[in-house]
Amino acid sequence: MIHNNFSSFSLSDDIQKALCVLDYKIPTEVQERVIPQALEKDLIVKAKTGSGKTAAYAIPICEMIDWLENKPQALILTPTRELAVQVKEDFTNIGRFKRIKAAAIYGGHPFAIEKTELKQKTHVAVGTPGRVMDHIRKGTLPLSMISCLVIDEADRMLDMGFIDQVEEIIKELPEDRVTMLFSATMPQEIKDISLNEHKAPVQIDINEEGNAAADIDHSLFLTTEEDKFELLTDITIMENPDSCIIFCSTKDRVDLVWERLKQMDYHPQKLHGGMEQTDRISAIKRFKRGQYRYLVATDVAARGIDVDDISLVINYDIPLEAETYVHRTGRTGRAGRKGNAVSLATSSQSRFVRQIEEFIGFPIPERTGYEKAEVSQARLNFDKKLKAAPEIKQLKSDQLNKGIMKLRFNGGKKRN
Ligand code: ADP
Ligand code: MG
After folding, report:
1. Mean of per-residue pLDDT scores for the chain
2. Which residues line ligand 1 (CB under 6 A)?
């Protein structure tokens, strides 16, 4: 079932190219499940925030759009104007090379401008229920060619009291269409929405816990306190991560590991509760921007950071609580990327390892140390990356900032 990339969906070159530009390399779980059956059946999809739902529907819709048709072929309903604008942008990005035209229509936006836009070529209309209904009533949103309806963030629609309007809109649409409903939670009122009287929808439920673990490569080294630090540097050399958090059990140990890495020119950042608040904030910011690739941290201090793109989590000290293990390792393997979590444990700590394995429900594969020869071989690349030109770092940081901004804008998710 695992696809290495999007090519197994047999997408057109235009869409594949756009996904390349967006740097979407691996489909997320929800994309994996939705894309193959989208537009064939009605779908009710439950998946948590940040799981990549937009592309799960935008990719098949962009693929399906007939460019020559001027009237809207898909209608996306969103609870907020911010989301409408974001989803419109996502369609524009994914449909870039196919020159897909998407229009956002929402309350507070000049109606006349939207009317003009809708009169011109519009493949996809994205809007809030109230404004969409407005356009329908005034005859400024032609519905005859709509073959796909998406109800995004249905649970928020419900909370905001929009469900009746959504049902009204559904009644106006051509019967010969498919509907996809997305929601992070699935209360009964949402299950009760009648998408289509004639068809039973397929339910897709993305179970968070089980899959989060599956997106991460877990591994364990048994070692001794004396060998630990050298093993740590070997791991970093072999893995050569773009971004890495090294977790230690106490602030003294953070200081120690940080100091030694600093001497080896890793340019590490550190984060623990003993630091001044302002230093902590600036450490987080710099790490987020990609100015630093290594962050040595305690759990307490790391709780506030929410960075999407951690390629490697190292448990320099194995956590004593199984939940902490899940929390730490959950920072890697997000948004469809394969994560990597490496833990170090001494033989007296095997009890904690067992507790963790029981909690996550599978054994953590054990690895032996590396051959000296392979480490010195890998060292060349590693050193090259350590000395990487600052402009490369800057570029990466700009991309990262863009990503963070985008997320902030989307659905009011709070960062920092
Ligand atoms: P949701 O709607 O489930 O909350 P979004 O669709 O807003 O999630 O996606 C969350 C973030 O993940 C966005 O920044 C999006 O660009 C990114 N993303 C989505 N799919 C992928 C993918 N396959 N690979 C990398 N990033 C992705
Ligand atoms: Mg969404």
Report:
1. 85
2. 24, 26-28, 31, 47, 49-55, 335-336, 403, 406-407, 410-411
Confidence of residue 337 (pLDDT cuts 50, 70, 90): low
Written out in words, the top-level CATH class of the domain with range 6-205 is alpha beta
Instruction: Tell me if domain 6-205 and domain 211-394 are identical in fold.
Output: yes
Examine the pLDDT at 416 and tell me if it is beyond 60.
Answer: no
Q: Which of 77, 171, 58 is nearest to 131 (CA)?
A: 77
User: Rounded to two decimals, what is the model's pTM?
Assistant: 0.57
Fold of 211-394: Rossmann fold (3.40.50)
Quote the CA–CA distance of 18 and 6 in Å, as a whole number: 11
% the chain with pLDDT above 70 = 87
String of DSSP letters for 228-279: HHHHHHHHHHHH--SSEEEE-SSHHHHHHHHHHHHHTT--EEEE-TTS-HHH
Ligand with smallest separation from the Cα of 35: 1
